[in-house]
Amino acid sequence: MNAMQPIQVGLLGIGTVGGGTFRVLQRNQAEIRRRAGRGIEIRMVADLDVARAKAIVGDAAVVVDDARRVIADPSIDIVVELIGGYGIAKTLVLEAIAAGKHVVTANKALLAVHGTEIFEAARAQGVVVAFEAAVAGGIPIIKALREGLTANRIDWIAGIINGTTNFILSEMRAKGLDFAAALKDAQAHGYAEADPTFDIEGIDAGHKVTIMSAIAFGVPVQFAKAHVEGISALQPADIRYAEQLGYRIKLLGITKRRDDLPAPGGIELRVHPTLIPASRLVANVEGAMNAVVVHGDAVGPTLYYGKGAGAEPTASAVIADLVDITRLATADPDHRVPSLAFQPHAIADTPILPIDEVITSFYLRLVVADEAGVLANITRILADDGISIDAVLQRESAEGERQTDLIILTHETREGRMVSALARMQALPSVLAPIVRIRKEDLS
Q: Which helix (H) or strand (E) holds 413?
């Protein structure tokens, strides 16, 4: 790479994010050159919709319909992959690495599932794979974890990392809507896809927290071991009761280091609806915004807040990666920041814990017969499993007369214990409907 020539970029896919990247790069070219030390130019674009791509880039770049032409072009220094998914994107990223190109990707699904293989290939070729845009859009959380907090032993991360589900939960709380109506609302506003499964079932958040966990704790990316639950079963009643008890329900991606276990310890990696105290900053993140709390031993809790999606916020992260690679292009590969923050030979095999081993507290809602002795039977079962109660709320049930909604908040316990206690409570004749159980985190 000639240090005076602008660095040449090839874009694979010019949809929302690709178009935003092109626009922001054009608009802020002078500022970016001052920071990077040389220009950054999108020289080639590959997209199946050639006409649309040409309408976006005009004469500024060569447009082709075959991504492999971009990878094969010797003048291209960096390939930006914005296709998404696990299929052709994986093949193209590995081919770009094999061709000696640096890669920038926004593809969290690809990295959460195949990251170990991709980073290893990049290391063998001496190229960089940069992926700031893969987690939380424009929020520089990957850089914060990899570089800003590098002096810290990270204790835990908890984040609202999916804007679609946060918008839906905000609508359910503010308007008292049920899930189906709030989802329709999100689709009407363009926050939810026609097929919203990846978002509402927690898979997208699972991909993102898997990547953050690997960087925070120096372990391989292993999405298959994450425990993932979505929000489609949440009911307005529980959002309302949580509020009365001083909590909000958010879909959180959570990863924690567990030092209470014998060596080599363990790591919790999970996504699920979670009660958090309404006084926490992260509990007040509304609409499609993202927020991530990282707790380090030296720095304490730090909060990263902003837009987690959209053309220009995500483009902001893609271009930050392009600038980083431009600065690093001349650096000896062994002296770059490692992909997952830890030196490759120092990646640990600390196990990801099964969900039964997770320690958390719980919100329970039981529809019970309005008769004497019911609460005593339930508290006895919890006591037998060593689960202590933090608060109890009794409300008239919407289910019918002579029935009561019994809401219980517990102190921390091991999930496996709670599962066994729930099975015995569910079997009581006085418990008239399936018990609702939502995990609760204090995030203190």
A: strand 413-414
In angstroms, the CA 397 to CA 384 distance is 27
Out of 101, 143, 208, 256, which one is annotated catalytic?
208
CATH code given to domain 7-139+312-346: 3.40.50.720
Q: Among this protein's residues, is 208 annotated catalytic?
A: yes
pLDDT digits (tens, 9 = 90+) for 311-362: 898 999 999 999 999 888 666 666 677 777 677 777 888 999 999 999 999 9
CATH architecture of 142-307: 2-Layer Sandwich (3.30)
| 388: Cα within 13 Å, side-chain hemisphere | 3
Give the Cα separation of 83 and 67 in Å (integer): 10
| Chain centre to alpha carbon of residue 381 | 36
For domain 359-440, which CATH number applies: 3.20.20.105, 1.10.600.10, 3.30.565.10, 3.30.70.260? 3.30.70.260
Other CB atoms within a 10 A radius of the CB of residue 192 amount to 22
Give 147's DSSP letter: I
- pTM tops 0.85: yes
CB atoms within 10 A of CB 370: 15
Judge contact between 395 and 241, C-beta under 8 A: yes
